[in-house]
Write a structure and sequence with these properties.
By secondary structure, the protein is α/β, with parallel strands linked by helices. The protein has two domains: 35 residues, no CATH class; 165 residues, 3-Layer(aba) Sandwich (Rossmann fold). Helices cover 44% and strands 9% of the residues. The protein is globular, with a radius of gyration of 18 Å. The protein starts with 6 loop residues before the first helix and ends in a 7-residue tail after the last helix.
C-alpha cells in the first residue's frame, strides 16, 4: 500500500490479518514490487482491478442497485484502474442496454479519460489529488476494452468538488465517504453532468478517511483564502 494511504485503511487491513508493505507512490513501482514478492514467496498475484473475477465481483454493485431501483437512466461510478466501472458497465448494459454509463475521475488524474477518447491506454505520472484511490497511472489490459465498448462518457471533477461533496454527504446524509468515493456524486452536485429529469444511480465507494484528515480538507478547501486552481 502507498505510504500516504489513509492510516485508517492501513490499520484496518492489518486488523484483518494482512501483512502491509508500504511503498512510495512517486518513487517505487508497485506492480514490479508485487511481481517480485510473488516470485520470492511463491504467491499468486491478483490485480486490485485488472482481473476478470475482480471486475465481475465489482459489477454486483450495479446488479444490487438495479434490484432496488428499476430502470436507471444514468449510472455514474468512480474510476481508478477501471475495475468498478467495467463491472458496473457490463451489468448495467445487460440489464438495460439504453442505460448511459459514466465514469468520473480526478481532474489531475485523467488517464482514463485520455485513454477513452484516444483509443489506446495512456499512462501518466502519479497524479496530485486527494482522491488516493484514483491515483492509478493507467487502465488495465482487461478494463480498457470493456470501458471503450460499454461506457458512454468519462468526465473529471476538481478536488474542491470532492470536498464539497464530502461535506454535503456528511452534513445532509450523515455518512462519511472518502474523496475517491465521492467522485460520482461530485460530478452531479457540481453540475459537471446534466442529469435533469433522469433517474440516476450514483455509486459511493469507500469510507476510508481519517477524521483529522477529513477536518483538515474541509478547512483547507472551504477557507475564504483558498484560491481555486
Amino acid at each position: 500500500m502507498p505510504s500516504d494511504a489513509p492510516r485508517v485503511k492501513i490499520e484496518a487491513t492489518r486488523g484483518y490479518g494482512a501483512e502491509v508493505i508500504l511503498y512510495d507512490r512517486n518513487l517505487d513501482d508497485r506492480e514490479a514490487m508485487g511481481h517480485e514478492l510473488a516470485k520470492q514467496r511463491g504467491l499468486t498475484l491478483i490485480s486490485p482491478y485488472d482481473h476478470p473475477h475482480v471486475i465481475a465481483g465489482q459489477g454486483t454493485v450495479a446488479i444490487e442497485l438495479s434490484d432496488d431501483v428499476s430502470h436507471i437512466d444514468i449510472l455514474i461510478t468512480p474510476i481508478g484502474g477501471g475495475g468498478l466501472l467495467s463491472g458496473c458497465a457490463i451489468a448495467a448494459k445487460k440489464i438495460n442496454p439504453s442505460c448511459h454509463v459514466v465514469g468520473v475521475e480526478p481532474e489531475t488524474g485523467n488517464d482514463a479519460q485520455q485513454s477513452f477518447y484516444s483509443g489506446h491506454i495512456v499512462s501518466i505520472d502519479p497524479p496530485n489529488t486527494i482522491a488516493d484511490g484514483a491515483q492509478t497511472q493507467h487502465l488495465g489490459e482487461h478494463t480498457f476494452p470493456i470501458i471503450r465498448k460499454l461506457v458512454d462518457e468519462i468526465v473529471t471533477v476538481h478536488d474542491r468538488d470532492l470536498v464539497e461533496t464530502m461535506m454535503f454527504l456528511a452534513s445532509r446524509m450523515k455518512i462519511i465517504v472518502e474523496p475517491t468515493g465521492c467522485l460520482a456524486a461530485a460530478a452531479v452536485l457540481s453540475k459537471t453532468l446534466n442529469v435533469a429529469g433522469k433517474k440516476v444511480g450514483i455509486v459511493l465507494s469507500g469510507g476510508n478517511i481519517d477524521m483529522l484528515r477529513f477536518a483538515s480538507l474541509l478547512q483547507e478547501f472551504t477557507s475564504p483564502t483558498h484560491a481555486p486552481v
